[in-house]
Amino acid sequence: MKINTTMPIAGAAIIFHIVTVFVSCSQGVRQTDYEPLSLIPAPASVEVAEGEFLLKSGTVLFIDPAFGSAGEVAGMFNGFLENHYGKISVTEQQTPGNDNIIRAKYDSLIDNAEAYTLEISPDGIAIAAGDDAGLFYAFQTLMQLIFPSQNAEKRAIAVPCVRISDSPQYRWRGMHLDVSRHFFPKEFIFKMLDAMAMHKLNTFHWHLTDDQGWRIEIEKYPELATVAAWRDETLIGHGSETPWVYDGTRYGGYYTKQDVRDVVEYARKLHINVLPEIEMPGHAVAALQAYPQLSCSGGKVPPFNRWGVSEDVFCAGKDETYAFLEGVLSEVADLFPYEYIHIGGDECPKVRWEQCPDCQKRIADNNLKDEHELQSYLVKRMEAFLATKGKKIIGWDEILEGGIADNAAVMSWRGHSGGIQAANMGHDVVMTPHSFVYLDYYQSKYNEPLSIGGMLPLEKVYSIDIMPPEIAEDKRHHIIGAQTNLWTEYIGDEKHVEYMAFPRLAALAEALWTPRARLDYDDFARRMSAHYARYDAMDLNYRVPYPSGYEAINLVTEGSVTVELSNGIPASSIYYTTDGSEPDGKAELYTGPLTLEPEADLILKSVTVMPGGRSSAVMTGLFRKAELKEASPVESLNQGLRFTLHRGEFNSVADISGDADTAGTVTTVRIPGGVPAENFGLLMEGYIMVPADGIYSFFTGSDDGVRIYIDGELVVDGDELHHGITNEGRVALKTGMHRITVRYFQRLYRQSLSLSWEGPGVARQM
Fold first, then answer.
1. Averaged over 395-400, what is the pLDDT?
2. 347-364: average pLDDT
3. 107 counts as catalytic
4. Which of 410, 414, 529, 605 counts the most CB atoms within 10 A of its CB?
5. How far apart are CA 354 and CA 337, in angstroms?
6. What is the distance between the alpha carbons of residues 484 and 505, in angstroms, rounded to a whole number?
7. 15-39: per-residue pLDDT in tens?
8. Parallel, antiparallel, or unpaired for β 392-396 and 409-412?
9. What is the CA radius of gyration of the chain?
10. Count of CB atoms within 10 A of residue 558's CB?
11. Under 8 Å between Cβ of 727 and 704
12. Of the residues 210, 498, 536, 704, which is catalytic?
């Protein structure tokens, strides 16, 4: 084995000056450079000026008394200075001075409540806003201009001169947190609200009830706290993996009314609206566990200890159901001042209603067409009731089915289509398409904690466009914003919540605040270097990207291969090993491209280490010398892959045997039409045409097990029971035809199978 390193070429000079900050980390004190205009989200307009303002303890702070939150903002700013710069503080005064002053002026001509201007000159800092929210966001920007880029010298902070004019693109910029599947104390909610405020997010969607737990005290129905807030045990592993295994531990918790008041008040000071969600008519098992008479059967409803959707829902035919829901919503409306209440409305199976005499009678009595219109009937009754409380309803896009209530707003989660439909009908819409904003999805291909599935890297969150062209020009104002959604089936502790939320929350914050024409992902990634230091200061367990530049399995046909590592964080360091040991801050420091010559199997491990000491997961790659496989002589071929289907309860592709139940041909690797829903195996064989000598990569998506063989060699091993995941492998092939064999089995629930491949002369294709 031989390893050579070369030094990278220095990059272009940064136009604006860089201030050095010293950060203590586990390897000692190291020097870190941050660009001083590392603002997240990027303002609408920024002009850099000459000079700097010296902020020191003699600096005067004057906030126009027309702002009702002057004292809160002054306290917040001095607390920030004390936390980061010791004894430096500003002196709040009731009348403005002329020298070394931060002056915040009320400007009635600024008609956007969240807009502000911020001008820093050598003589002082001038802020203007037309509302307390704009004042608050101006100081959030000022604090980011100061920390972490600026160092305090001689008890003064040199703040760069700049002119900023800023306002958000959308008025709803939110984050959703599910506390039903796993419960989190109010102190953690406070921490998340603080992080939201730093990102200029203004709506906290609090998912308080679901099948697995009821999390809010309702005095009229005390058993919601004593019974519905608890389940017997919790599922271990992924819900698609059977047989299900449970931990045997009773689990639960709820927020008292005082807890809710505390959260609402804390959020108010941060200019964040709190949106409560009380699920109906589905996702109701926890409530039915406490009050089974509200189910269609009226019989006992046990706790729902696993994830997924239960067929037990609120009975829409019983008057008692409406009395209960109105009683709950009355107390919820009193607790939450926000104009909206979320009533869910999603994933409501109609099985119980189809068999329920009470539900069928209500359908008949009200001339409803079907169970979908029965759900719409329930939603409309709740809308009418909440209107008497001065509230509006918002629900998931399923509330469009069967007819939507007149004044309801829609959260479009199954893509953009529900939002397009609702906006064109004249309803306000919050876009929350799962493929762009569901933070319970995986963040990368390797080394991630168990998640529900899907893939959502940081760049894809940043790329969201919530204004599709299908929305009529005169209806576009109905798209009021977007939010991330963080469901917690597989997220059981606070650090895991933080890992899934950050930094992806920052990407959405910028996509919603900054003008679309100014969005630039590469620039965002550079500015995030400083933002990670802010996360460190808040003790947020953000995800650190592991180094990229190689895969888990790397085949080499030549004598050597060059590997160039990167992670997108200029302020970080990369360390690596090639002896199989785990890298840390004491391993070899990466300084430039590596030349690897794997005479035998070589294992490269690398890790990102942040200035504050936080590390990424370790990226491990095997480098192996491979000979090119000879092509197969084939005289004639027919189009497609020949398959045989075998029925049986297989647990591995190796178990597939016996006579075929059916046979046929498919044009790509996929599940043929007409197969059973579960418990079968598929065997496929055919040939692929390789256009050039080289290394080819194969990627499978499957639920459950799959193996791919090329010329009899196992290339992709995704065998055994698992949920929908991607597996990959590589093989060295010569030009020509090569035999491909696919072995796949499906057990319970979802089924999926796909194969794509790429290599020299082959773009990624099915």
1. 95
2. 97
3. no
4. 410
5. 37
6. 7
7. 222 233 333 333 333 447 788 899 9
8. parallel
9. 29
10. 7
11. no
12. 210
